[in-house]
Amino acid sequence: MSGYVAVIGPGQGATDRDLADADRAGSLLADAGMVVVTGGLGGVMAAAARGARAAGGTSVGLLPSSDRADGDPAHTVLLATGLGELRNGLVVRAADVVLAIGGSWGMLSEVALAVRVGTPVVAVRSWELPGDAVHLAADIEDAVAAVLRRLAVA
Asked: What residues have CB less than 8 Å from 70, skipping those under 6 apart?
């Protein structure tokens, strides 16, 4: 099984728990052969990339700016989109499943876009949204397991 998983969450303002969970998620996803996709910057994005790198995996960062130097160097590949916040749509569309960790306004826009286009979303310690479009996981291990289950049926 292989796939692309967007790991999204706060950049600035990420908590220590968010960062630890993102690092662990990146590692678990890489171990499972997944490519980690992020917004390319710091916080949860960088932590997921570090976890993937430590496990020998690949992470792709889709940057809002036009300069690759703005990205976190933990990513394997950094793509400068020059699209600002509109790059959130690219992050979602590049992924087979979205894993949301914690909560931020930018992340909420990505969750909304994912739900709108039918990309499965799994979340841990994130926004409580109406309906059942977002699977709320108990912890990061449960979240990654839920992501992998969704990829197995895709």
From this structure: 40, 41, 63, 64, 80
User: Is the Cα torsion angle 51, 54, 55, 56 positive or negative in sign?
Assistant: positive
- Scan for tokens 């908590």, then name that residue: 15
**84 secondary structure, DSSP code:** G
- The domain containing residue 78 runs over which residues? 3-153
Per the structure, how many domains does the chain have? Answer: 1
Quote the CA–CA distance of 99 and 108 in Å, as a whole number.
12
> The pTM is what?
0.95
Count of C-beta atoms within a 10 Å radius of residue 126: 24
| Chain segment 73-113, per-residue pLDDT in tens | 999 999 999 999 999 999 999 999 999 999 888 788 999 99
d(CA 17, CA 38): 18
Residue environment code for 4-21, b if the CB has 16+ CB neighbours within 10 A, otherwise e:
bbbbbbbbeebbeebbeb
Domain containing 105 — which CATH number? 3.40.50.450
How far is Cα 79 from Cα 73, in angstroms, rounded to an integer? 12
